[in-house]
């Protein structure tokens, strides 16, 4: 028998080999599955109509796990793709390309056993009494019909939220946002535009400094991650290819509270602020933006002695990342339900995500108001919960019909052995019904928070067994990358993101204007 040392080496080699083989097989299956949609059956018109609004984290998680053969499923959303938002802050600088984090909805629905209808449209009115949704085709190209009504038996509202501006004058007109793909595309163009305009012949130094001042408002994870990505872009690529901007390009992060990233532990907040400082990002905490004009930001600063002063900051590009606000369609829906009157942050729901004051309408994700933070983790767990709920509802209905039929048979049965067999089936169906009906309310499992903070460093507060692990630095950055890669929607997305990262390492980011 081989010596102990060799036995261990052989074990290590075999494990590595089998893992690599398994990984390659999994990847190959993923690719095969992506390009080979299944034969689908048409839905049974006698089944109930389930309308799902939105194609974000919540709605897509529901769609993924839903047995579509039980319903006539209709999905309505102004965008015909799912967007992997955790990597969106990497897009405006070109670290990750837009299409790499988009998954076409058709890829998702063509893999369902029973076909699903999709309408690319915006829901403009939810009428819970008439049980219809009014939808509008808001794209540039419209057919003769561009507004209609879609009736529903069941409705799931997963329309997300819009950017909060708190009614601050000038924000909507002058700021860039970072919520959707087109926000990111606009932002990428604007950054490069500012750079090229700053270098225009005869530009004064003052104007050059203004144009190259990138101000990010909001020290939540969106603001921190984007400011970090922008500074990386400058350090790694812009400085190298456009040395003329090296002395003037400057990123400022503005936050109204005393600290950034309030959802992280104190040590990680301190680590983040120290890293931002090392990166030469100007961090202005206790600074509340009050007004925005085309070239200047007015901000109220709270001094250490508690006094307040107004400061004017010239800027070239303003990125607004101050969290979520309720969408107009949701506000309108809530205004017509008395039970929703006191809910401010979104649609009030019960522990099964049923919209308070309605019947057969559910809400999930950022458009709903629960005790959880508006995150992708929460929305996707809610989506998976609703899929279980709908699958169980269909099973319940089927079992109840079967039990009714068996009861009728039991009455009609004459022979003892027939009676006995019917009783036996009744017993097992009733037990199954009891099991199916026992669905516990939604319970969220927090897996942790991760954020990229620049210079190939990340912070993580991860739940582990019954405790929590807080870490920050280069290793956490590798963890952050592998976690996000594994969380990508599909094998196709994983490969595209990985290729983007390799491409950026090899050739740097693209500095041309789109
Ligand atoms: P969304 O994913 O926003 O989807 C809403 C859907 O509804 C979209 O398809 C939209 O087109 C559609 N819609 C909009 N209006 C209508 C309408 N009128 N009718 C029909 N459909 C409509 N969370 C994390 O947990 N981890 C992260 O790392 C993370 N990173 C983020 C990074 C960024 C830049 C941003 C902006 C958010 C990030 N989040 C993260 C938060 C996360 O993206 C949201 O919490 C999540 O998207 C909420 O899912 P949702 O399904 O409720 O809404
Ligand atoms: P946020 O709500 O987390 O943070 C917004 C910040 O803007 C707040 O700290 C607020 O104090 C500040 N602010 C508001 N008004 C201001 C003003 N006038 N002037 C200066 N500062 C102002 O918003 P964010 O970052 O967009 O995140 C939204 C949701 O998405 C959160 O639930 C977040 O957890 C989640 N998310 C998670 C990420 C991750 O886990 N890596 C990444 C991005 C978002």
From TrEMBL:
- Entry's Gene Ontology cellular component terms: mitochondrion
Q: Where is the External alternative NADH-ubiquinone oxidoreductase-like C-terminal domain?
A: 446-510
Q: Which residues form the FAD/NAD(P)-binding domain?
A: 49-383
Q: Recorded E.C. number(s)?
A: 1.6.5.9
Q: Which UniProt keywords apply?
A: FAD, Flavoprotein, NAD, Oxidoreductase, Transit peptide
Superkingdom, natural source = Eukaryota
Under InterPro entries, the record lists: FAD/NAD-bd_sf (IPR036188), FAD/NAD-binding_dom (IPR023753), NDH-2 (IPR045024), NDH2-like_C (IPR054585)
Q: What would you give as a GO molecular function for this chain, any one?
A: NADH dehydrogenase (quinone) (non-electrogenic) activity
User: Which reactions is this enzyme annotated as catalysing?
Assistant: a quinone + NADH + H(+) = a quinol + NAD(+); a ubiquinone + NADH + H(+) = a ubiquinol + NAD(+)
Q: What class of enzyme is it?
A: oxidoreductase
Q: What family is this protein classified in? A: Belongs to the NADH dehydrogenase family.
**Name listed for the protein in its UniProt record:** NADH:ubiquinone reductase (non-electrogenic)
């Amino acid at each position: 028998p081989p010596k102990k040392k060799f036995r261990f080496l052989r074990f290590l080699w075999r494990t590595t080999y089998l893992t690599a083989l398994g990984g390659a097989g999994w990847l190959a299956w993923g690719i095969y599955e992506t390009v080979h949609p299944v034969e689908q059956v048409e839905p049974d018109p006698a089944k109930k109509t389930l309308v799902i609004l939105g194609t974000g984290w919540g709605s897509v998680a529901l769609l993924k796990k839903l047995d579509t053969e039980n319903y006539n499923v209709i999905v309505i959303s102004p965008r015909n793709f799912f967007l992997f938002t955790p990597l969106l802050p990497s897009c405006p600088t070109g670290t990750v390309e837009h299409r790499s984090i988009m998954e076409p909805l058709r890829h998702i629905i063509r893999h369902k056993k029973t076909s699903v209808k999709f309408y690319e449209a915006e829901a403009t009115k939810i009428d819970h009494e008439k049980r219809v949704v009014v939808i509008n085709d808001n794209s540039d190209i419209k057919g003769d019909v561009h507004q209609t009504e879609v009736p529903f038996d069941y409705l799931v509202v997963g329309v997300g939220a819009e950017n909060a501006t708190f009614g601050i004058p000038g924000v909507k007109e002058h700021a860039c946002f970072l919520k959707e793909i087109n926000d990111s595309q606009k932002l990428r163009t604007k950054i490069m535009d500012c750079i090229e305009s700053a270098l225009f012949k005869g530009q004064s130094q003052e104007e050059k400094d203004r144009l190259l001042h990138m101000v990010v408002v909001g020290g939540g994870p969106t603001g921190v991650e984007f400011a970090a990505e922008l500074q990386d872009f400058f350090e790694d690529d812009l400085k190298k290819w456009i040395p003329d901007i090296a002395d003037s390009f400057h990123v400022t992060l503005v936050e109204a509270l005393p600290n950034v990233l309030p959802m992280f532990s104190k040590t990680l907040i301190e680590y983040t602020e120290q890293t931002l400082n090392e990166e030469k990002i100007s961090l202005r905490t206790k600074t509340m933006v009050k007004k925005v004009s085309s070239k200047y930001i007015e901000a109220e600063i709270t001094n250490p002695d508690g006094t307040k002063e107004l400061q004017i900051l010239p800027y070239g590009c303003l990125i607004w990342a101050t969290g979520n606000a309720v969408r107009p369609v949701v506000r309108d829906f809530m205004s017509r339900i008395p039970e929703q009157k006191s809910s401010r942050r979104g649609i009030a729901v019960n522990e099964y995500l049923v919209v308070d004051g309605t019947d057969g309408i559910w809400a999930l994700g950022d458009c709903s108001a629960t005790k959880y933070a508006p995150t992708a983790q929460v929305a996707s767990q809610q989506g998976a919960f609703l899929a279980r709920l709908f699958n169980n509802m269909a099973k319940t209905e089927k079992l109840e019909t079967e039990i009714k039929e068996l009861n009728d048979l039991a009455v009609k049965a004459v022979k003892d052995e027939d009676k006995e067999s019917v009783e036996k089936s009744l017993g097992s169906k009733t037990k199954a019904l009891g099991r199916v009906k026992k669905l516990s309310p939604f319970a969220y499992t927090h897996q942790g928070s991760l954020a990229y903070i620049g210079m190939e460093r990340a912070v993580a507060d991860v739940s582990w067994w019954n405790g929590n692990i807080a870490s920050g630095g280069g290793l956490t950055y590798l963890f952050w990358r592998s976690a996000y890669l594994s969380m990508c929607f599909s094998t196709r997305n994983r490969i595209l993101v990985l290729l983007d990262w390799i491409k950026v390492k090899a050739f740097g980011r693209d500095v041309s204007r789109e």
